Amino acid sequence: MANQLAYRRVLLKLSGEALAGEAGYGIDDDRLNAFASDIAEVHALGSELALVIGGGNIFRGIQGSAHGMERATADYMGMLATIINSLALQAAIERLGLTTRVLSALEIKEVAEPYIRRRATRHLEKGRIVIFAAGTGNPFFTTDTAASLRAVEIGADIIIKATKVDGVYDSDPLLNPNAVRYEELTYLDVLSKKLKVMDSTAISLCMENEMPILIFNLLVRGNLKRVLLGEPIGTIVRGA
Fold first, then answer.
1. Cα–Cα distance between 77 and 70 in angstroms, integer?
2. What domains appear along the chain, each with residue ranges and CATH number?
3. pLDDT computed for residue 27 by the predictor
4. Close Cβ partners of 162 (under 8 Å, ≥ 6 residues apart)
């Protein structure tokens, strides 16, 4: 089955909000277990899977700074939130009998390994699911940028970004029923049109390293498997 995969080594970017479910905050058990099942399904195909998870369901650094908190402090708090989410997803995946490793950009050795690039790639080669926590370990950088950086470092074939909609639109499809979905975009399209795919730092990093990005709806069960098998769903961003 592995030779049928369109992408073998994949970095999946999950937002923290995706774990929150309808409540909008915290971790929803049903949503967590559904994601874990989808991840287990594609792992069984022979993919090498790494993940980056945001922390917005617990704390968003940029919101903390907007309320008067020093931005660096707020961002570190956001990094700690990603560690909580990473451990929750690790537990859900391992309940399904798979082996995972959480690698943290902040040293927190009691619960996670420190991030070392060669160690991460070795875990992937051994068939372990790798979860990258704590962003880049630096304030002022988003988890989107962390996903782009880690994808380039581990030599991923693609970044797959999970969202609540089935791709990138010219306007918000939840507000505009006539919004048009793009099937394919270039990095420069995303930057010039100011489309909300990833922040500009993340897009620029992908553009410089020719790392494609595919945006799709993970809330539809089975979509992750369809993406890895090469079905044309979502929106792909790549060079011209």
1. 11
2. 2-234 (3.40.1160.10)
3. 95
4. 12, 13, 14, 15, 18, 216, 217, 218, 224
